[in-house]
Amino acid sequence: MTRASALLLLSLCGCAGGGLAAGSGAPSTTHMETGGGAFDITSTADARVASHAVAAPAERVWAALPAAFQAVGLTGGVVSESERVYGTPLLRFRGRLAGERASRFLRCGTNPIGSPAADLYDLEAVVRAAVQPDAAGAARLEVLVEATAAPPAGGTRTPCTSTRELEDRIAAQVRQAVGGA
């Protein structure tokens, strides 16, 4: 496992105390050298937890998560039963996520000719979902997608941001399964 992969996993496992914690928003600069010259890319991790109200008890929402992940093309497992956190293992892929172009779900900048890096670079991602009961007896579903990208020829991994499309799809699948608005 690369150091960046380990750091990504550590940032995602910090969900003690209920809910999900997003990674650091500190800017990072990556120096790239190609046959056409050198350039720097400065980016800021913008990992935000997508929170969705679901009009159903937390137990029903929790039970619906495995099927919701599968419906959007992700294989997951229980991360923490006691905190109701479900998620994927570290995903490694290039170009496609959940059966579609990765750029539909992730923004990772562009390559030197302006194409979306998410569709061309080597990506690592983790998707986590947590279920929290609310005071009214319904549930709050929190979904977090964190990813990094690296050029296929090698180089430093840079953080990606989510378009929130994947988070919204997972929430829609859960709502459909439990009948919650």
Low-confidence stretches: 1-17, 42-46
Radius of gyration: 17 Å
Tally of DSSP helical segments = 3
Report the helical percentage.
Answer: 10-25%
> What proportion of the residues form beta strands (DSSP E)?
35-45%
Largest sheet: 8 strands, antiparallel
Shape category: elongated
Describe the structure.
The protein has 181 residues and is of the alpha+beta class. The chain has 3 helices and 12 strands. The protein has helices at 3-12, 58-71, 165-178; strands at residues 27-34, 37-44, 50-54, 77-80, 85-87, 91-94, 96-97, 100-101, 106-107, 122-133, 139-150, 158-162. Strands 3, 4, 5, 6, 9, 10, 11 and 12 form an 8-stranded antiparallel sheet that branches. The chain has a two-stranded antiparallel ribbon with strand order 1-2. Residues 1-17 and 42-46 have low confidence and may be disordered.
Question: What would the keywords be for this entry?
Answer:
181 residues; two-stranded antiparallel ribbon; 37% strand
Please summarize what this structure is.
By secondary structure, this protein is α+β, with helices and mostly antiparallel strands.
Question: What's the topology here?
Answer:
Layout lengths: L2 H10 L14 E8 L2 E8 L5 E5 L3 H14 L5 E4 L4 E3 L3 E4 L1 E2 L2 E2 L4 E2 L14 E12 L5 E12 L7 E5 L2 H14 L3
Antiparallel strand pairs: 1-2, 3-11, 4-5, 5-10, 6-10, 7-8, 9-12, 10-11, 11-12
